[in-house]
Amino acid sequence: MAQKPSIPKGTRDFSPAEVSKRNFIFETIRGQFQKFGFQAIETPSFENSETLMGKYGEEGDRLIFKILNSGDFLKKADSQALGQKDSHKITSYISEKALRYDLTVPFARYVVQHQNELEFPFKRYQIQPVWRADRPQKGRFREFFQCDADVVGSTSLWQEVEFVQLYDAVFTALGLKGTTIKINNRKVLSGFAEVIGESERLIDFTVALDKLDKIGEDGVKKEMQEKGISSEAIEKIQPIFNLTGSFSDKTEGLKDILATSEVGKKGIEELEFINSSLESLGLQTATLDLDVTLARGLNYYTGAIFEVAAPKEVKLGSIGGGGRYDDLTGIFGLKDMSGVGISFGLDRIYLVLEELNLFPETVAQNTKVLFINFGEKEALYGLKAIKKLRTSGITAELYPEDAKMKKQMNYANRREIPFVVLAGAEEMEQEKFTLKNMKSGEQFSVSVYELVEKLK
RNA sequence: GUGGUUGUAGCUCAGCUGGUUAGAGCGCCUGAUUGUGGUUCAGGAGGUCGCCGGUUCGAACCCGGUCUUCCACCCCA
């Protein structure tokens, strides 16, 4: 071995066992998506840069992987920009495609592009990898899968109610109990900013507020101050730090705080509708919680904002997020098309299930029986039985070489194949097979028919 | 993108203030055992010490760069 090969930072190879577990999550999510009436679409892994750039805020642009143009791309680059080593400027000359950063923006593009073929409200789901040029950490990769479900073409709040139920259904089906579905509303956040007279600094305000659980109340206030929010304003929003109790306790508190804000009141109304509906419908294993500090993905969300936290004992960021965006398709030229959707972070859900030991043992599909190879004639004899087993839906295989028994048995052992068939001259003569249970060590002499029956 | 951290055999890790041929456990291969694995015993293979450069008589160890890992920030699934 000269130089060990490697894979890029933040990417991973998946072993057979890992793939089995990942597929278990995929299939569970897919199953629930379909039950809720979503239909799958797929979009290209890369888009035209202009489709993605500017949709995720400044920070987002930095994290988008750009694809270098083909051919002699430097020839066309602006020589002045090149001379100045202005990376930002040069990028537009040498790269016109980029890897997708999430599934929502490509979906919006898809809706606009195919608007005449779609039936609205259009419910789609999409399970594909996305890429971010982020610095990796635990549960943070540069290539990871998102599982999205979105509805466009309906402003009905029943959609939000459905999505909370969908979250609950998926995590319940995965056996992951005790998740918290945090909900907030952009209108409430706008209301806060309005009430304190800092509407122009809405984003700075909410970004700071979002860090409450991380840096504490004083930290939040300090950051707000640094961003230029006045002390009077900070004083005014003090009550939001004191919101506690049940969902309705919090909405009652919000009513006082946002009494003078029309947007704010609208936001509270929406939250109350969603909560009371869900109280009647009930959730299986998840808990719905109002978290007014939740502000993620603010860039295009206009109504509800969702985020799912794993059970408390697992230290990991969110395992899902989503919200309503009233005008995402507007940037691609289609007005008045409200959308709402949620996303599941497959890779993080994997880490959580692994940490809590929640993967069912049955996820790994393995060969059920290995035929020991004793030579050419015996192999053929074995393969005839294997053919029958496979027709009956049993995974069976023949060891390809007539290697030493020890080696073949060892192979079965290591691959955790539960049964082995020994069929040599003796068995062939009697038209039998020796079936051995690798765990108990028991052996039986059986006919082909009995072999199929026993292994079913 | 900013600051820090990590890298020694397939895996988990030792390796003293720089000093001869770099070690352990597990795993792997061979044999004891030529149609019976997981146990045991005996033997064996396997490392340009992440990479590049520097300091030194001498570098796994010190210095610089680079890549990678993990962590904090930023941001986020």
Automatic annotation (TrEMBL):
Gene3D superfamilies: Anticodon-binding domain, Bira Bifunctional Protein, Domain 2
Enzyme Commission designation: 6.1.1.21
Subcellular location: Cytoplasm
Keywords from the named record: Aminoacyl-tRNA synthetase, ATP-binding, Cytoplasm, Ligase, Nucleotide-binding, Protein biosynthesis
Keyword Protein transport: no
Catalytic activity: tRNA(His) + L-histidine + ATP = L-histidyl-tRNA(His) + AMP + diphosphate + H(+)
Binding site for L-histidine: D102, L103, T104, R132, Q146, D150, R296, Y300, Y301
GO molecular function: ATP binding; histidine-tRNA ligase activity
Family matches, as PROSITE patterns: AA_TRNA_LIGASE_II
Aminoacyl-transfer RNA synthetases class-II family profile domain residues: 1-400
Any one of the GO BP annotations: histidyl-tRNA aminoacylation
Top-level EC class as recorded in UniProt: ligase
Record's GO cellular component terms: cytoplasm
HAMAP family with a match to the protein in the record: His_tRNA_synth
Summary of subunit composition and partner proteins: Homodimer.
Similarity comment: Belongs to the class-II aminoacyl-tRNA synthetase family.
Protein's UniProt name: Histidine--tRNA ligase
Gene that this sequence comes from: hisS
